Structures are given as C-alpha cells and as structure tokens.
Amino acid sequence: MQRQEPIRMKPHSVNLRRELAFNPARFLATAMPRPTVVVHAPETEPARPHPLAEELTKLGLFGMAQGLHRLRGERPRGLSRFEDWLSALVAGETASRKQKRVASRLRAAGLRYRAPLADVDYNAPRGFDDALFHLLATGRWIDDADNVIIDGPTGVGKTWLACALGEKACSDDRSVRYERVSRLSAELDAARGTTRYTRRMRTLQHVDLLIIDDWGIEPFTAEQRHDLLEILEGRYGRRSTLVSSPVAVDQWHRVIGDPTIAAEMLDRVIHNAHRLQLRGESLRDPQKTSPRGAAAA
Fold it and tell me: How much is the pTM?
C-alpha cells in the first residue's frame, strides 16, 4: 500500500490553526458581518422657495437665483437688507422687460386706435352689456379660444372697443393682429401665388387674437370668401377671432354671398362667440358726447 504524503500548509496557517483552537471566539467575531447602523437625519420641512428667487428664475437669471438660495442658507448679517435692495432691482428689471414686450406686441398688432380700458366711457349711449365687456376684458375667452362679435351702427364705437380688447390682450402678453377686410384683401391679392402669401396666411391663422374690422361693409368677392374661410378654418377651436361689423349678424349670409361658403364661415365664427351688440346714434358728433366719449367712438 502506497503511503500518502501529508498535505503541507504554509507556516502561518499552522499558527492560525493553533490560535483558532485556543480562542475560537476571536475569529468568529471577526468573520461575522458588522450590523449596518442607519443614522436618520432629523425631519425638517423643505425650504420654501424665496419669492425673489422665483422672480429671478422667471427672468432667466438662474445663477442669481441659486446665489440667493445659497446666501439664505448661510444667513450672513444684513441679508434682509440685501434682499430688499435686490428685490427692488429685480422689480425694476421685470417692469422694464414687460414694458418693452408690450410695446413690441402693440407695434406688431397694428391697432387702429390706442384704446386703454381705463378710457372706456360707460356712460356713452350705446346700450352695450357692461358686464359682458368686463368679462371680455379679463381675456378668459382668449384662453378658451372663443370668438367675439361686435356689431352695431356706424359711429357707436365698435372699432375702439375692439382695439381696447386688443390692447388688453397685448398687455397680457398675447399676440394680436388688427386687420380691416378691404386692406387685408388687397394685400393678399397682391401676394397671391408667392411665399409671402403663405407666410401671411400662416401668421393670420396662428396669432392669439385676430381682429377683423369692417366686416360686411361691401359684399365679399370670391377671393375674399376663399381667403377668409381659410383663415377662419385654421383658427376655429385653436385661436380667438374678434369680428367688428356694421351689419347685423342675421344679415351676414347676404354680404358673404355664396350660401355654402356662408354657412361654413358662420359656423366657424358664431357658435362659440360672445356677442356685444351696440345701439344708438353716432358718438362722433361733438354736440352729443364729451371729448372722452368722442375719442372712444
């Protein structure tokens, strides 16, 4: 029988075996995994964003907003005074940017009159619904993509009131465009068949508020019916349109002409429209109205 050679271990292994025999607890304690101690941080309410930091973020000044947040965490002496000083600067920057933005909106709108809502003469004898006009002045109808119709005899202030609503929309940071039917038709006819016509139509379809003035003064031509139907079709349910007309709504089908197109155009204007119907004599007569009322006409 062949003799089996003993397995030779490294010298330090022999010593480890001897230590294990004399003190096994030492090695068991070392081999066992140590329990993980989880230290829970005390619950604190999340820091609320500072109003000034929110204003800085709106202005796109993200670095200033982060710097303010860091300073508030460090709480240096006199920070409240620093915040007051910086708040005044931010308020000035915000007001300046808004003023420039509104001025740019007004230039692009091309409104026929500058017509601040504060100058509306509610005592003028035109018989319109004050409550409805106040509701329209909030601009909610533009958010809802509704339409507005202002109709009534010549001189009672339809265009001025339409421009007042347009100016308010500009101040609310909405894009506005004022168009008279005759001038718009001439411009589209001149650009027809060119890329300028396409760009013009795209702008008319996508502006937040389109004001169409002098609707129905003359019977529509075939080109006018086609262009206006395309504009109204692109805006229906997506953008708001304000139509000002000296012709009563129930007579629009007559000035449009083609019965089929008239039905389609009326469907895209009337069904979701607020109607501001005016009455009375012309406000342009200086003997019948105050200077403020004459301006509002």
Answer: 0.71
